[in-house]
Amino acid sequence: MDLGTSDQEQAWVELREMVGRILERLLETENERLICFLRFECNIPPREIVDAYPDRFSLTEVNNTVQRLTRRMRTDPEMQRVAETLRQNSIHFASLNAAERFDLKRESSMAEPCPLQEVDLLDYVTGVAMLEIQRSIEASPVCQQAAEALTDSVGPLLALLYRRTCPPTEMLVDYQEHLLRGGPELIVHRHVERCPLCRQELSVMQQMDSLPDADRGSFFRRLVEAILYIPGPLAQPVRGDTYRYQAPHVHLHISLHHHADMPRRWTVRGQVRSPQGLLIGDEVEGILLIPLSEGDEAEKQVEWSENRRTFAFTQVPAGLYQLRLLMTEEEIVIRKIMIGDTE
């Protein structure tokens, strides 16, 4: 299936339907279905799943289930054929060149296997790992290699699974305004009951409804999370390496550069590209870099190059941030970016 043609959107829909049929076969219990939905379709980390369902799941049960489902996806022939289709077409992944692969294997060939569980590697790949896990992986070549192997096998499926069953924003608007009736209303209602992302959108709509018409804006953006893909080994902020984040329709390439004369100040540079690699900075309406750590400075202002090929945030203090990319119909969110070392 060629996703680079004018039928790309239809091909995407067909692949999602195919994955849905495969999941019906792979998922054996109701608990597996719920955990699969929350972890792979909503990108909710295991600890937050337990927080949402404390009477239903323990952290051990969620971790074991996620690990079991990940292995099924990695070994299922049909699922891997879908992943290969995505790899060969519109979903591209940064990877090591041949020399880097050789060096990494040579360095790690005599080392112990990565001590982290696959569920921890998945958290890292999807950008929701806790800081200590992130640092452990970035300090270990063998764990970097394990994370890259996981990315190669299930990474193409993550964008396909993300919000796979969420209704379109237009349908959520109709649901919010009580315009749906019968079957469609029931389907959306049942979905919203278990989907934290759609509930978040509905909450935003309710807040918008309370604003005067002049303050609402002319449209509503769908919230979409961008997922981290690994550019290579030892991708530590102090090295100024490039990070790659992918949402279904947008790829973000972000690099962190340290100011030698100002130890705790950084420059964050980036490009916005289509899945086919084309620069689309002129389609961006705004970029926000929002500090998440207590005591950090206010939201930073973005600077664009003259032709909007590159954006930059300068004089950024070390800390934890969230980046939001405002498109016409979507708001792309990178939930957490660690800039520098806060210790």
Report on the structure:
With 343 residues, the chain is an alpha+beta fold. It has a domain at 236-339: Immunoglobulin-like (Sandwich), CATH 2.60.40. The chain has twelve helices and ten strands. A six-stranded antiparallel beta sheet has the order 2-3-4-5-8-7. The chain has a four-stranded mixed beta sheet with strand order 1-10-9-6, with no helix packed on it. Helix 3 packs across helix 4 (59-75). The chain is globular. Mean pLDDT is 78; it is low at 1-6, 90-110, 214-219 and 230-240.
Protein traits:
343 residues, alpha+beta, Immunoglobulin-like, six-stranded antiparallel sheet, four-stranded mixed sheet, 12 helices, 10 strands, 44% helix, globular, disordered N terminus
| Spans of at least 5 consecutive residues with low confidence | 1-6, 90-110, 214-219, 230-240
SSE succession: HHHHHHHHHHHHEEEEEEEEEE
Identify the quaternary structure here.
Answer: single chain
Structural class: alpha+beta
Q: Radius of gyration from the CA trace?
A: 21 Å
Strand element count: 10
CATH topology of the domain at 236-339, by name, is: Immunoglobulin-like
Give me the side-by-side strand order of the main sheet: 2-3-4-5-8-7
In short:
The protein contains twelve helices and ten strands.
Element layout with pairings:
Blueprint: H1 8-26, H2 30-41, H3 46-52, H4 59-75, H5 77-88, H6 98-108, H7 118-125, H8 131-138, H9 141-161, H10 169-176, H11 182-194, H12 196-209, E1 222-225, E2 227-229, E3 242-246, E4 251-258, E5 265-273, E6 286-291, E7 303-304, E8 311-317, E9 319-326, E10 330-339
Parallel strand pairs: 1-10
Antiparallel strand pairs: 2-3, 3-4, 4-5, 5-8, 6-9, 7-8, 9-10
